[in-house]
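Quick one:
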Amino acid sequence: MAKLLIVDDEAGYRKVLRAIFEDEGHDVATASDGRAALAHLAKGKRDLVISDVRMPDIDGIELLKKAREQDPDIGVVLMTAFGTIETAREAFKLGADDFIQKPFNNEELKVIVKRTLEKQAIISENRAFRNAQRQMGTLSNIVGQSEKMLELFRMIEAVARERSTILITGESGTGKELVARAIHEQSDRAGKPFIPINCGALTETLLESELFGFVKGAFTGANAGRAGVFESANNGTIFLDEIGDMPLSMQVKVLRVLQEQKVRRIGANDEVPVDTRVITATNRDLGPMVENGAFRQDLYYRVSVIPLHVPSLRERRDDIPHLAEHFMRKFSARSGKNVTLSDGAVAALSGRQWKGNVRELEHTIERAVALTGDGQPIAAEHCCGNGASPAYRRTEIPADGIHLPAFLNGLEKEYVEEALQRAAGNQTRAAALLQIPVHSSHRVHRERRERKCKNG
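Output:
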């Protein structure tokens, strides 16, 4: 059973439609015009509005706009005795779920309503699933429970259904493409193509042909025409990664597509209309690039309508154990192993600086799982650097001998200094990296004091 609102200025249609859908088991309310319909919607939620287009004061198109402002997820089916292709196009452009012309076949209208309600149910289920994911600190394979990541999750959900361009900023390895995919999957374009293009990985010529396509004979080797990604991703999303690396001459062409919503293949005379959402990303600061002329100001304003920033792993250290656990499960399942994370491994991971961010952490866990036996915990030494074990120093004993206590004392000092550096001065973390009890880490305390004195 669903809650329906029938809106028509003709009493006969209201009566007939109410009888039809009450027989189907639905809770049906009626309104004689758009203003009365909005007042009814303000009192309580309705799943679907079935409205005439031609009505006095507030017509069906205006009702659609205002109803969606009140409830973005409400279903809307429009009907009119004066149906035209232009009216239908306008209705769909504004987000109507379907359109039927009077006089209509009752069975056809029932099918339309059933299909629309099924769509609404899927949207509600997806929202409930996303909310559950967010509460668990996961959204579309993005893992995080820190406040910065929860805020990013909220932003993704808020902007996903907008049509505006989005600029995602953040260091390399932070997961900017995952954010772009999450936005696409939660938008009304989900199920349509999502095509990523790395602007810095292609030459200007290849990038142009990838984006815009070409016709047969456009250049040597063009033996057949091919659509570019703007056409291939029509009704979907293009992700332009590292847009800061795009040549200026290409920036002009991309700007024109964004402004005109039309694309011309290389060598073609005609333009093709496209409805493609564009999400961009960069690990560079585009502001100074605009000032020195390396990036067009008009394109910058066009692509950065909605800015999103993905924090570095150093800014969300609380998420490191959750990410490590996530990657451990992923690679354990892939290798058919049952491994766990030792406390020492978690401490070692939490103490590192992670210049490569989440990507570096993922590769570290992949390597650690490969080096760990089935049923065994991942050891700290597998998480301390690029090697499979700590870089213990191997030295030859000089011919005249070695003063072992002094040598070991110097070696200990080097390791303690490195541990403090990785732990950002935190004694507890440094002690965990060295796998020594905090209360007995006299060297850690002494070295920390010496570093403070040295730094003034």
